[in-house]
Task: structure prediction
Amino acid sequence: MGGFVPARRAPRAFVGSFTSAGGRGVVAADVDPDSGALRQSGATDAVADPSFLAAGPGGLLYAVSEGDDGAVAAFDVSGGVPRLFGAPARVRGAGPTHLCVAGGHVVTANYTSGSVSVLPLAADGSPCLASDVLRHEGAGPVVERQAGPHAHQVVPDPGGRWILSVDLGTDSVRVCALDPATGALRLHHECGLRPGSGPRHLAFHPSGAYVYVVYELDPVVTVCRWDADQGVLEPLGETALTAPGYPSGIVVAPDGRFAWAAVRGGDVLAVLALSGEGDAAELVATVPCGGHWPRDLALDPAGRRLYVANERSGDVTWFDLDPATGLPARAGSLPVPAATCVVFA
Result:
């Protein structure tokens, strides 16, 4: 079976959603190049609860299926309606909440089982059964949320040498080395963060020298120094966002001047001004997220607009970004029941 080669087309937005909560699965939307407005073109519920999506090489889109018997599915998104491409592959873990594509593999963070799985990609881009599963160990002081490990996100570093996995249950970020030939994942370094903070997601500064970790159990962002040569993450300082609330995601402007974090509960977007090098962050404003329970947020490819997946109000709301101040201004909204994430591909 040959590799998938899609027709060229303008970038589109894809939204994940919880089918178990009334969502339509993977939703595709065309993006107006002038206004940034979304117009839904189609959806598929071919897999249950595709809560996070990732664009891959060759024009395919990958989704986790967040269930007890977790899986990864590939979709052909060359048409208006996403189409399942090959059979979903089991991750050998429970509750996968996030995934990334690296070194010819898909890597998943499995929240419920507290593990990270590596799935090789076949020549046509379809996922295969997990080749390796790295199980996290440890716990945190918030007993009801941190009785054991809960891997929440996996991100390749900008150089593509390392995989960083964020664990809410162990209050740490693990740095792992992926062998692209064998699909084996090896733990290299673990960066401990403040006990009880519950780290959820991180984002890199465009320089690649700094990382911003957002916590779920405390509305705080920690700035870390990233040593790509040594594969070591070092916390530098914390910036409080807003209270009360449960942060979910964070993104960084392409020019490195601002970062934005979504905070559930408070239902706001926190605007952070970053220092010239990126080694410090200052909260400069909070604005309403345009809905309820912002589970994820994403920048458009040009970095001019911010898109927020509001899970409980069931919409994706977009904002124009002021290039001078970083302040988001609400510009529109698309109904998407049980929306969980937004990606562009």
Observations:
- The chain has a mean pLDDT of 96.
- The radius of gyration is 18 Å.
- The longest helix spans residues 143-146.
